[in-house]
Amino acid sequence: MDGFDAQDVIADEAALRALFPPVSPLAQVKSLPALDRHARDFIARSPFVCLGTQGGDGTADVSPRGDAPGFVEVLGDRLLAIPDRPGNNRLDSLSNILANPRVGLLFMVPGFDETLRVNGQARLVRAPELLERMAVNGREPRLAVVVAVEEVFLHCAKAFRRSKLWDPAARQDRSEMPSLSKMILEQTTGAPEDAGEMEKIDAGLEEAYRKSMY
Q: Which of 50, 67, 125, 189 has the highest CB neighbour count under 10 A?
């Protein structure tokens, strides 16, 4: 179906492991069952986390979540909460959690080449006292994603160093691609040919951002 010969496809873990050297002793033992002080400090500094979910039919999804550093609240050694800020209302991640509570989190800190990975089981919670603490500009989230932590570990810097993600010299010019509005319109109903009309649509999106961040 995808054009690859069967002998070129890795189909079992034994074949996979045979391609790589043994895992290092430190990597083997670094996984923790709870948030230690270093994990807590990392989360407190993080303004961005990727939330990985999977639906009942096995469909996978990863959603970015961002806010001021420390927006993810640590409720205990094995419990944390992520406010659900306004989005596009597709509710992909939230619907997946209802079907399959297992989630994976990847925390990032600007300037840090290391990341923090957390795996566990999530619930959608509307506890008033929690939502009140997560309010910004007087606006509470509709709910919080509360994760019962099962596994925590720090991830090494190789991916970020290869990608030069935080290197200012590696930044790309955003104007080299169309605006988000134009790309989505071209992918769906069609974008207007008139540049002025497209500018109005882009300005409308920016205004929507301004009004609906929280």
A: 67
With contact defined as beta carbons under 8 Å apart, do 127 and 75 qualify? no
Amino acid at 140: E
Mean pLDDT by 10 residues, the chain (214 residues): 88 95 91 98 98 96 97 98 96 98 98 98 98 96 98 97 97 96 96 95 94 92
Give the helix ranges, DSSP H, for 6-91. 13-18, 25-29, 37-45
Q: Which domain does 199 fall in, by range?
A: 172-212
Are both 82 and 112 inside the same structural domain? Answer: yes
Classified as helix, coil or strand, 168 is helix
The structure's pTM equals 0.94
CB 107 within 8 A of CB 43: yes
Contacting residues for 99 by C-beta, under 8 A, at least 6 apart: 55, 56, 57
CA–CA separation, 129 and 131 (whole Å): 6
Measured in whole angstroms, the distance separating CA 152 from the mean position of its chain's CA atoms is: 16
Please tell me the distance from the alpha carbon of residue 205 to that of residue 195, in angstroms, as a whole number: 15
Same domain for 137 and 52?
A: yes
Q: What six digits make up the tokens of 26?
A: 């430190």
Tally of structural domains, the chain: 2
